[in-house]
Amino acid sequence: MLKRIHIRNFLSCEDTDIELDGVTALIGRNAAGKTNVLKAIEWWAQFGVSKELCEYFSTDLEPNFEIEFLIENELFKYELKTVAESAILLIENLSCFINGNWQIIAERENEAFRHYNEDFYLTLDSHVSMISALLSLMPKNKINPALIRVYDYLRAIKYYVLDDVYENTVQNRYSEHIDISSYKQWLAKRNKTKPSLVMKLLYLWHEDKETLEELNALIGENGLNIVKHIDIEKHGLGLKDEDSFFTVNFVMVNSTVSYRQLSYGTQRVLAILLALLYDNCSTLLIEQPEDGIHSGLLKKLLPLCFEYGAAYNRQIIIATHSPDVINLVPPESIRLVRMTENGTKVSSLDAERLPFIYDYIKNEGALFDFIDAMDDE
Description:
Blueprint: E1 2-10, E2 13-19, E3 23-27, H1 34-48, E4 64-71, E5 74-82, E6 90-98, E7 101-109, E8 112-115, E9 118-121, H2 130-137, H3 145-155, E10 157-160, H4 169-173, E11 177-179, H5 180-188, H6 197-207, H7 209-219, E12 229-235, E13 245-251, E14 256-258, H8 264-277, E15 283-287, H9 295-311, E16 315-320, H10 323-328, E17 334-340, E18 343-348, H11 354-363, H12 367-375
Parallel strand pairs: 3-16, 3-17, 10-15, 15-16
Antiparallel strand pairs: 1-2, 1-4, 4-5, 5-6, 6-7, 7-8, 8-9, 11-13, 12-13, 13-14, 17-18
Helix pairs in contact: 2-3, 6-7, 8-9
């Protein structure tokens, strides 16, 4: 779980310090920098496991990150610094908090590496991360196991924009019939290609029917009540298996429809639930989950997501404008995002005011109303 991030020189985050919880809601006006905070976290995670140039990578901007995170109750710190005005261009440090002190696991200055107090040099481009380089080039029996755990953790941090899926050609391409060769091609590259909700469902039908049934229970009549159940069938056109195809349909109250025929809001609900059930994330960065979803449904969906996040150790960080979302999050998990002369700044609600906030929620009104009144002060 991400505990604290300090971002410098990345988009609007000139010098931004944030403490995070298991569930965190970033709230603020348009252009305050909520999205840039999510993009910064995603960029750092991608760079940490990268073997190729990441978007926004520029030593001229000198992006710097210092991030603390928990993996199975062990606290790690990963520092990334780019320095354009000196001979040192790229610095990376990975540490673990042991017996009250930060202990270096691995560190790097350009092509000079240190791992387990062993110094060596690797000829690498600056956009190849230290962790990826060490895991790829060092003998397995010499690699600190913590490197593998950190690598797996970073890979599982995912950013969900949940844009209009009607415009997503990957989704539309597979929304009616999926021939078996298309499924096999997708399966071979499923961790490297753009996500397809329909293909995810088809994968669960093949490999994990228990999770598919869990999803059906969540969206069905005794759950969110948006789809009765998902119907997946295999059809044969001939004797050969390669001539087969699959259909993925959604049984509603009085009709059966394809994915493309579902409402935008229903598609987004399915995308959020599959992010929790299928994607095996360590951290979900979700942009405006409220878009397209009815207020009443949102009030059922998000507590369900928070419950699953806690049960399966998935951190959820949300950027939102929605009063409904804000009212569903504990006050101590709210982060106020503001644009200042010095870029994006993020703050928690004042700890001394929390008892008054809880009293206000209990006796007078909703959390959003309290925060809205703060903006008027």
